[in-house]
Every structure is written in C-alpha cells, then in structure tokens.
Design goal:
The chain is mainly beta. It contains 6 helices and 51 strands. The strands form 13 sheets. It has a 6-stranded mixed beta sheet with strand order 41-42-43-51-50-45. A 5-stranded mixed beta sheet has the order 1-9-8-3-6, with no helix packed on it. Strands 10, 14, 15, 17 and 18 form a 5-stranded antiparallel beta sheet that branches. It starts with a helix and ends with a strand.
Length: 710
C-alpha cells in the first residue's frame, strides 16, 4: 500500500512541477507522446530463468502480465512477484525483471508483456517457454548363450543400451507357449499409445506409462504371416508419432512339431492290436498330435521290393482332425492324429513308413525320397515312423511256454483230427474252420504252463459239457471247465479245476470251449480233457538252487539241490501252513553247504521230534550288524553302508528267512551252513526230516531235508 501511495505522491508532484513550468514559461513546447521501448521477442525461454526487460519511460507508466499467462510469467518486484508494476518517467534506463516458472511442460506457453503510458498500451515483449521434449526409449531382453531370454530374480534381464534405428525387435518362437514373443522394456516421459503391425500386439496393463513399462510383444495367432515379415512399432502422443522401432517376425511356414506319444515305430498284429515296447497291447488307434500351418501333412509310403512307394489309400489308416478354417482361426493349429490298421489275413508281414511333413515340404511325395527310393531324404529322416503289421499266425493259440515245458507239466495240445461238436453245426468265421484243437491236463500243475496268446480277439467264450450242452453263464463259476482272460483279453488260460466237484472226483472228464467273434461266428474250438494225475511219492519240484545256494556250482558238484514244492503229496501235507515249502536234497553224506539267508526267522522246530533234528545241523549264521543310525545316515546320503567295526561282528543261532537285503525291515544278508549226516547206526539209504522255520506265532517256510546216499 505504501508503494502505491508513494507512486501517487510522485505523480502529483510531477504534475505540480509541470504546471508551474507552464505557468512560468508558456512558450516551452510540451511532448505528450509516450516513448515505448522496441519489441523484444524470445521464443526459447528456459523454464525457471529470469528475464530482464529494459525501458526508459518519458512519462508515468505501468507494465502488466496478462491473466492467462500469469501462472508461468510474473513481474519480480523486490521480494514480491506481481502482475502489474508502475513507475514515473526516467532519464535513465529502468530494468524490469520477469520471473518464469521452472515447471516443464510439453506445451508451448507464451506471454505478451504490455506497457501503458499516456493512455496508450503496447506489447513490449513476447516470450515463449521452451517446451519439454517427449522421449521414449526401448530396451531389448538379453539372451543367454543358448538363445533363451535371460531371467533373474523373477523378471527378464534387459540390455543396458537402448535400441537404435538399426536394431530390430525380432520375435522368437516359444515352443512351450506356442507363440512368437519378445520381452521389451520401454522408458518414456509421457503417456503414450502404440501402433502395431497387423500381426503383432502386446498386452500392456500399466496404470501409467510414464517411467518404465515392461511387456511382451507377441505375434497375433490369427494373423501370422507365412514368410519373414518386417514392420514398425510407432509410439505416439495423441496423433503425433514420437518414435518408431523396427520389428520382425519369422515366417510361420517353418513351424512344425509332431508326436505319437513318444513312439518312433509302430507294431500292429494281424488282429488290429497295437503292441507297445512295454509289452502291452490295445485295439484302440494310436493317438498323436501335429502342430503347424494348414499345409503341414502326413505322407504314407508302403515298403515294396522296389523300395518306398507313395500311396493314397493304403492299408494304414491315418486320420487328421478337421482344420478350423473359420475367419479369425489360428494360422498355426494343433491337429489330432489317429493311426489304425484293418484285420490282416496275409501270411507275410507288411510294412509302411509315415513321414510327418512341415508346410515347406514338396507337395509331390516322390520328391521326398532319396534317389534309390529305399529311404526318405536326409532332411526329413527325423520325421519318419516305421510301421509293421504282423502276418496272421498259423494257429489260433500261441503258448508262452515251450512245448517241452508244457509236456513236462502235463499239458498236451494239438490240432483235432475230428470235427468239434458236429451236432452243433458250428458256423466258423472265414478261414477259421481249421482251428479245432485238443487240450488235455494230465497233472494239476499243467495250468502253470497254460497261458497263451490268441490270434484274433474274441467277443465271447462259450463252455459246453461232454454232451454238448451249453453251460449257463451264471453256472460257470462252479463248473470245472472255464476260461480265464488275462490283461486286455489278448492273453488267457483254459482252466480245469477238479476241486469244483463236491462228490467223488472223476478219473477223466471232457468238455468244450468255443471262442466266437462279434457276429457269433466261431474263431476256434477246443476239446478239453482232464485226466486224473497218478501221483507218486515224487513231488512236483521247481529247482531254485541257483538262487538259494551261496555257491551253486559247489552244490552241483556235491550232488545237492533245492526245489520248491508246488504240488503233490508233500505239498498237500504241508500246504495248510501257508508257507513256502522247499526240498533240500543231498546225495553225499556229511556235506556242508552255505545257503543265503537273512534275519527275520529266529526259531525252528522239527515236528514229531522232541530233541530236534537228528540228521540235520544248522551252523550259526554269520552276518554283520552294526550301528543302525550309521546305516541310516549312509542310506540317506545315497551311500552303501560302511563296513562295521570288528567289535560289532555278532552271530545269531539258527537259520533265517531267505530273501534280499531290506534296510526298512532291518534285515541283512547272511550265510547259514546246512549239514546233513546219517546218525551212527543208521543204514537207510534215504533219510528225511521236516524242519519248520518261523516266529513264535507263524511258520514262514518249511524245509524237507532229504539225504539220499547210494
């Protein structure tokens, strides 16, 4: 307020002086024309700088900043910033200081400084603040030596230097995600938008794009080009392009993958079943997938004496799921592959080759072959799957056990010279009428060698009695004759179980089993005979010497052997113990042999003898036991148990369980010496003692110890 009062007093004093002058000397001319300074223009004012405006007024004056630009420009009056400043005439220059804001802006902010004198107002200065430059830089993701994008601490690692005009964002195919992609980091000082080529895009969900923004540039799955294609990514501010970067996408024609569940060869039997390398078989088609453009395909070649021959309608059926050709569908698609074969009655195997081909492969299949036509060209060799369909076997049944094994077990099998069930007038499937057989079991153990593989899958199995009467399905579980399917039905057993007779068992009995297809036609018919086994004192034995003697060769030279008893009188006499039964036979008197044992059985007894066995002695077992914690430590560190200390050697009296080492049950391998010696005064050439081994409550196995001395 003082400043305004002083200005007013000054003006009043100046008016009095002027009036006095006029009064004293009326002849002196008076200049009433205001003298304004020359117009000052500066269109590149740095924000925050102070401007100096020089005037030399010849009369009272005022300078003002328009209201519309007062936010950015102000007049500096001492410590104060004002919109208007006034003064009187001056014989010397007067400096006016103009303050500018230090806040940067992308917009041009201008201001016209006005001066008023003698009733006139003129623009004496025009200033424009320098606009902030919009900047955007892009940084590419770094790659490892293998070509993968470098990843650390939960995010991608980016190059230190920003992209230049020579750099290119070259999209990379991600096989896991099945898309073209490239991670990019953008640093900008403004809110931007981006324009992509039609085949590229990015999902950018940042709240603000000022600062650092990371995103993946990826190929649009429905617009991928077949050939290598270049384009530009434009960063814009409104409609103004601030910066562009190059982007490139490889041609999708080269993308192609396929799999048949890991199978590199396919083996089918004559009955349409696929046999995998693990021994299983299935009638379901082999399934796979193929990924790539629409032009990718599967070519089929048959193997002939002349080499590989391309075929359009082969015996090998290859079906691809339908291609989605609707608008907006993906350029690269996954198609399911189904491969199957028909039934085959040929007598020789037939072979084919599948070649899985990318879109870049020649359309003419002949161009895929090597000059000699025996193989495909090297560039397609990794896409080849060989296929074999086996010839039809000569017989309906193929036994797992050899004929000598079957006969030794009492199983006899062969073609029937007579028609099976002639009164039934069985209708056979085409080519199957020769498959009529006789099957007989002459020993109970015959069933252990009866597992067979069948040539053609059956739909049903019908059982007839000796008179040709069909056994009703609900009666089959109690009938003595039956069929037991195994696995997926390709394997089975014909069972003849005499225990199904509640009354006196017949000496001999027969019946029939007939295999039929989906149409009810006969595939094979079997006349089954059971002949009651004429048992002797000799048990049916299975030699296990090689697994139970510590030194099988020493045992063989000493005339010793161990057999597992699986049927016969001895088996019947001991089977209620529900424990394995072994026959230990020595042919030399006073012989000691070591048997592999472990520590689970700790007691034995000799039934019917209060003083224990007379002929058999069993030496203390020699085994090594040591600190359990140490063993567990070694086990957890994937080490073999360390050797025990001498003081940890201990012996345990008695024979223990046969078996393998088990750390979980704390059993350890050991050796027991079995010795057989005729007691003094005994002259019998054959002696036998039974020894039961087990715990306090259970018998775990039985030894029938037999000494046969000539």
């Amino acid at each position: 307020m003082k400043r305004i009062i002083y200005n007013c007093i000054g003006l009043l004093s100046m008016a009095v002086v002027m009036f006095a002058g006029v009064s004293c000397n009326e002849e002196t001319p008076i200049d009433n024309t205001p003298k304004f300074p020359e117009l000052v223009t500066d269109n590149d004012v740095v924000p925050g700088s102070e401007l100096t405006l020089t005037i030399q007024p010849n009369m009272a004056w005022s300078i003002s900043v328009p209201k519309e630009c007062y936010e950015w420009f102000k007049i500096q009056d001492g410590k104060f910033k004002v919109q208007t400043l006034s003064g009187v005439s001056s014989d010397t220059p007067v400096e006016i200081r103009i303050w500018t804001t230090d806040e940067e802006s992308f917009s041009l902010r201008s201001c016209q400084i006005k001066m008023t004198m003698g009733g006139e107002t003129k623009i004496i200065a025009e200033y424009t603040l320098r606009a902030k430059e919009k900047s955007v830089e892009a940084y590419l993701a770094s790659k490892t030596e293998t070509g993968a994008f470098e990843y650390a601490d939960g995010s991608y690692v980016y190059e230190d230097a920003p992209m230049t005009s020579d750099d290119v964002i070259e999209l990379v195919w991600d096989a896991n995600e099945k898309r073209y992609v490239f991670p990019v980091k953008v640093v900008a000082n403004f809110e931007w938008s981006v324009e992509w080529p039609e085949w590229a895009l990015a999902d950018i969900d940042a709240d603000t794009k000022i600062g650092t923004t990371v995103f993946d540039v990826y190929g649009v799955s429905s617009r991928l080009p077949m050939e290598n294609t270049d384009g530009e990514i434009s960063f814009r501010s409104g409609e103004t392009v601030i910066k562009t970067f190059k982007v490139r996408i490889p041609g999708s024609k080269d993308i192609f993958t396929w799999t048949l569940g890991g199978n590199i060869s396919l083996n089918f039997d004559h009955a349409q079943y696929f046999h995998s390398g693990e021994g299983s078989a299935t009638k379901d088609p082999v399934q796979g997938i193929m990924f790539g453009p629409a032009a990718s395909r599967v070519a089929v070649f048959e193997k002939t004496d002349a080499g590989l021959t391309p075929v359009q309608n082969p015996w090998l059926n290859v079906e691809l799921s339908q291609w989605d050709s609707l608008e907006g569908a993906d350029v690269l698609q996954t198609r399911n592959i189904s491969i199957s074969v028909p039934k085959y009655a040929g007598q020789t195997d037939r072979e084919a080759v599948l070649v899985f081909l990318p879109a870049t492969a020649p359309a003419d299949d002949n161009e895929l072959l090597a000059p000699d036509k025996t193989a495909v060209k090297e560039e397609y060799s990794s896409n080849v799957v060989s296929v074999v369909q086996k010839a039809c076997p000569d017989e309906y049944f193929t036994f797992e056990a050899a004929e000598t094994e079957r006969e030794a077990s009492g199983l006899l099998f062969g073609r029937s010279e007579e028609t099976i069930l002639p009164e039934k007038n069985l209708v056979y499937a085409e080519g199957m009428s020769a498959w009529q057989y006789n099957l007989s079991y002459e020993k109970e153990m015959a069933v252990t060698k009866s597992t067979f593989y069948i040539t053609f899958p059956y739909e049903s199995v019908v059982v007839y009695d000796a008179q040709g009467n069909e056994i009703a399905e609900e009666k089959l579980p109690e009938h003595w004759l039956g069929y037991n399917p195994l696995g997926d039905g390709l394997y089975g057993q014909i069972l003849m179980d005499m225990t199904k007779f509640t009354s006196e068992k017949p000496e001999a009995i027969d019946g029939y089993i007939v295999f039929k297809d989906e149409q009810g036609k006969v595939l094979a018919a079997v006349h089954c005979f059971y002949v009651a086994e004429k048992k002797t004192e000799e048990d049916v034995l299975e030699d296990v010497s090689s697994t139970m003697f510590v030194n099988p060769s020493d045992a063989a030279s000493a005339g010793a052997a161990i057999y597992q008893v699986i049927s016969g009188p001895t088996y019947e006499a001991n089977k209620e113990l529900q424990a394995p039964i072994y026959l230990v036979r020595y042919t030399k008197d006073d012989t000691s042999l070591e048997i592999v044992t472990s520590r689970q059985c700790w007691m034995y007894s000799c039934p019917g003898k209060t003083n224990g066995p007379e002929m058999v002695t069993i030496d203390d077992q020699m085994y090594h036991d040591f600190e359990w914690d140490k063993q567990m430590e070694d086990w957890q560190n994937n080490l073999l148990p360390s050797a025990p200390k001498a003081e940890d050697y201990r012996g345990t009296e008695g024979i223990l369980t046969f078996g393998k080492t088990s750390f979980e049950t704390r059993t350890y391998p050991g050796k027991s010496k079995f010795n057989m010696k005729r007691p003094e005064g005994v002259t019998d050439k054959t002696m036998r003692e039974t020894i039961q081994f087990g715990s306090t409550s259970n018998v775990l196995f039985v030894f029938i110890c037999e000494l046969v001395v000539e």
